[in-house]
Write a structure and sequence with these properties.
The protein is built from 11 helices and 2 strands, in the order H-H-E-E-H-H-H-H-H-H-H-H-H. The chain has helices at about 15-35, 45-60, 85-105, 110-135, 135-155, 160-175, 180-205, 205-210, 215-220, 230-250, 260-280; strands spanning about 65, 75-80.
Length: about 290
């Protein structure tokens, strides 16, 4: 369900892109340290976005050094040093990735269930390590995913209900551990980001779900694949949601490092609209096709 919130690389300045990549690599390293080396394979651009939002909210300015990693052994790469924000995002990623696999095991059939069960087994050690530090978040994510699964099994048409439930999950993740005033803003950003990710993922999976017979709220809304006019309506709805997210982002300020704000602006004003065009019309690259790893 991940890979929909990322930058438009060609629109970033060199320093800004280096900063973004340093955050990605720093998160990957923190995942290895906090939740085990295998968990690094589940890194997602969406959690790099989480890192940037929390860096802006907390005012953390982690140092950036140059390190080698198992994938890039020859040349050192710019990499953020470990900090509270990166370590938190690493553990939160382990929690959500594992719980999503656990949910897929319950909801899938046949080979899809076997695949989900294998991924759950693969991610279980990372989850156990994260749970020791974030037990309340683990319980919250599990409860809300169970409510989302129940909503999907009910099969009611429309996307607002399940999208709001997934938004509530990301709201908890974005806001966890922050002071009350900052937590309110982080929760608002997480809620709107979660809605966007859920709807974009449902649109992206329409054709596959139509063939397999899996529940898809967009298919239920239109009774099948949307026509061009209905796609335009979906596009408008997603862009309106992004305008609300941009309004919340305007309250964040610029932070201590202007590169953080520049990266977030690129994601919100360019990257996420590009995702809308891709999932609806197939424009641009596939999700997660230009990973840093």
């Amino acid at each position: 369900m991940f890979g929909y919130v990322k930058v438009r690389r060609e629109e970033l300045r060199v320093r800004e892109y280096e900063y973004y990549r340093a955050c990605y690599c720093g998160l990957c390293r923190s995942m290895g340290k906090c939740t085990g080396q295998c968990s690094r394979l589940a890194i997602s651009y969406d959690f790099v976005f989480l890192c940037h939002v929390r860096l802006l909210l907390t005012g953390e300015t982690p140092a950036v050094g140059r390190r080698r990693c198992p994938v890039h052994l020859i040349h050192r790469r710019a990499m953020m040093e470990r900090c509270d924000t990166l370590d938190y995002a690493a553990r939160a990623a382990a929690v959500l990735n594992y719980e999503k696999c656990r949910d897929d095991v319950a909801d899938s059939r046949g080979f899809a269930r076997l695949s989900a069960r294998f991924r759950q087994w693969f991610l279980a050690p990372a989850y156990r390590r994260a749970r020791r530090v974030l037990p309340e978040l683990c319980d919250s994510v599990r409860q809300k995913l169970a409510a989302l699964s129940e909503c999907e099994r009910a099969g009611r048409p429309g996307v607002d209900g399940p999208a709001a439930l997934f938004g509530a999950i990301l709201a908890d993740i974005f806001a966890y551990g922050l002071p009350e005033e900052k937590a309110r803003l982080a929760r608002d950003i997480g809620q709107k980001t979660g809605r966007f990710i859920y709807i974009a993922d449902a649109i992206d999976d329409m054709t596959e779900d139509l063939k397999s017979g899996n529940f898809n709220p967009v298919l239920g809304l239109f009774g099948g694949l949307p026509d061009e006019e209905q796609k335009k309506g979906l596009q408008d709805a997603l862009l309106v949601g992004l305008s609300d997210l941009e309004a919340a982002f305007d309250l964040l300020g610029t932070g201590a490092d202007p590169a953080t704000a520049a990266v977030l602006k690129n994601i919100l004003y360019l990257g996420m609209p590009a995702t809308v065009r891709r999932v609806l019309y197939g424009e641009g690259c596939r999700k997660e096709d230009d990973r840093e790893q």
